[in-house]
Amino acid sequence: MFTVPPDLEAKMDEVITHYPVSKRSAVLPLLHLVQHHFRFIGEEAVNWVAAKLDLPPIQVLEVVTFYPGFRQTAPGKYHIRVCRTLSCAMAGSYELMESLCKSANIDRSHVDHHHPIAISADGKYSIEFAECLASCGFGPVCMVEDDFYEKVEPAKSADLLAKYQ
Amino acid sequence: MSSAAVQYLPGKEPHARERRLIFRNVDRVGYDPSIDCYLKDGGYEQLKVALKMEKIAIINEVKAAGLRGRGGAGFPTGVKWGFIPPTNTKPVYLICNADESEPGTFKDRYIMHQDPHQLVEGMAISCFAVGAKLAYIYVREEFPEAAIILEKAIAEAHSKGFLGKNILGSGFDCEIYVHRGAGAYICGEETGLIESLEGKRPYPRIKPPYFPAALGLYMCPTIVNNVESLCHVKHIIQMGGAEYAKMGTPNNTGTRILCVSGDVQKPGYYEVEVGKVTMGEVIDVLCGGLKPGRKLKAIIPGGSSAKVLRADETFKLKDGRELGILDIPMDFDTMAACGTMAGSGGVIIMDDSRSMSWVINNLNNFYAHESCGQCTPCREGSLWMKKISDRIVAGKASPDDVDTLETVANQIEGKTICAFGEACSWPTQSFIKKFRDELKGDCKPELAGRVVNGETAVAAAGLSA
């Protein structure tokens, strides 16, 4: 059963006031709050947000499925994003990805466009490539949850993961 | 402004050739994002000045300053503001485009993290000038910390009376809210951004009729400006448009932040007067030169969508100048005359260790991922460009595939609703035009599995984990 705690719903009610013209504009912020709390946005969450904003569920689902920042299934306990785009790739982001996967015991062989996230066997870490994280001069860069790291040496990926237990 | 000398963190001092206006407080010793720090430094004084001006006078100062948008298109900001229909009776909105996601670009991040009140003040002035009582900062999802810092800055400005009802007794009301994106490059396109802000898929709108200044957010006049552009407004009020226009070069005024990445000794951000440094000076003077023993091969001068420049190219301009690529001044107009663009200020330097097949493949992967899928030529074409360049890098292509790749790119440009069509086809078109022999030379089975940039080519192309 999908239940939104009262304090989370209070936050949502406040956010909705930011959009006095159209409640539909609050779809993204509400989905962010849902994903931040529940780690992903499932079918029940889509229906709940739709009801909250008086929208047909498809108008929420089409948003969830479009944006790479939204997940429909649970990631690992700590979710990692490695920048894949040119400047970071030149600085070694593919090597960083490989090293992080090795350190976290993640198999990325089944990853594709529609299933970009791979999860470690123990569920502790998940990882995906992200497109340009906008710190191109200081690559390779990655994010663990909301924490941002620059010039991450592939050889030191285990040290980075050690911060997240 | 405070008369105390501004000091910078060790190792992060600006280069002597820089002119720090927007980045004055970035990496500054003792500077923090709080409003107290900003006020101590003379903050919100320009808002006070602006609120006593006629709205049209502010717009005229911005026009006189010659400010051109720093997001990529380089369109004159004051002219954009002037497009709001004079007979308009609908509400007007202002949106700050903080979706910074053009590969190679990393400047707005530092403004938002380290000097958020500069942006808030610039926005408040701009809102007053265009008559917007409601504004949004559309921050990309990958800047969670920036969103928190901006929300705090907005709350602080509110508590001091710089936002909200009847700002500083002027009778002007203005609210700013932070709106977070969700990881889509297309939201940097202003009409896609507006759709996203309306809670929809960010499919760009067709222009005409949907020029945001006439039919934008909720079909009302909407001004969409980049973070850096809005910050410049504050300085234009401070200096006066005419004085501001003395910085830089004619028609390319002010300062701009160059973001340099790739194969140089000191990549990073450098704020310079527009057109006052050349590409060669960017590399050799600002960035300390190429890496030891390396030769320049190619430069993408204005974000990944800008057409690539080859090291040995020369350009004969209409005004008689003959320029090698290192002689090109970093401005909007000369860059355009050389067949590329200054774009977002993201300069990517590539030396002779780089495989051009690998580089264009990396970019094609980006564009295939980021096409919104609305227009068929772009949705299908960007994916085919990725697939063909995947094959080239993997050594599984025939030389004819390079021509096919070019044909695909040619069929996207000019055939889409938004400029993403050009953004995704220009890299492929220019890389093929300038490195055709290299790309064709890579179409050999014996090259499959070769090592490129420290990775096997196949792994680098993302064909295996």
Please provide a brief summary of the model.
The complex is a heterodimer of chains A (about 160) and B (about 475). With about 160 residues, chain A is α+β, with helices and mostly antiparallel strands.
Topology:
The complex is a heterodimer of chains A (165) and B (465).
Chain A: H1 6-16, H2 27-38, H3 43-52, H4 57-66, E1 78-83, H5 86-91, H6 93-104, E2 118-119, E3 125-130, E4 142-144, E5 147-149, H7 157-162
Parallel strand pairs in A: 1-3
Antiparallel strand pairs in A: 1-4, 2-3, 4-5
Helix pairs in contact in A: 1-2, 2-3, 3-4
Chain B: H1 35-40, H2 45-51, H3 55-65, H4 77-81, E1 92-98, H5 108-114, H6 116-130, E2 132-139, H7 144-159, E3 175-180, H8 190-197, E4 222-226, H9 227-239, H10 241-244, E5 248-249, E6 252-253, E7 255-262, E8 268-273, H11 279-286, E9 296-300, E10 309-310, E11 314-316, E12 322-324, H12 332-337, E13 346-351, H13 356-370, H14 376-393, H15 399-410, H16 420-441, E14 451-452, E15 455-456, H17 457-460
Parallel strand pairs in B: 1-2, 1-4, 2-3, 7-13
Antiparallel strand pairs in B: 5-6, 7-8, 9-10, 9-13, 11-12, 14-15
Characterise the protein shown here:
The complex is a heterodimer of chains A (165) and B (465). Chain A is an alpha+beta fold. Chain A folds into 2 domains: 6-66; 78-162, Glutaredoxin, CATH 3.40.30. Helix content of chain A is 41%, strand content 12%. Chain A has a 5-stranded mixed β-sheet, covered by helices on one side. In chain A, helix 1 runs antiparallel to helix 2. The two termini of chain A are 29 Å apart. The model of chain A has no long low-confidence stretch (mean pLDDT 97). Chain B folds into 3 domains: 35-246, NADH-ubiquinone oxidoreductase 51kDa subunit (Rossmann fold, 3-Layer(aba) Sandwich); 252-351, Ubiquitin-like (UB roll), CATH 3.10.20.600; 356-447, NADH-ubiquinone oxidoreductase 51kDa subunit, iron-sulphur binding domain (de novo design (two linked rop proteins), Up-down Bundle), CATH 1.20.1440. The longest helix of chain B has 22 residues, at 420-441. The mean pLDDT of chain B is 94. Chain B has 17 helices and 15 strands. At the A-B interface, helix 2, helix 4, helix 5 and helix 6 of A face strand 3, strand 7, strand 13 and helix 13 of B.
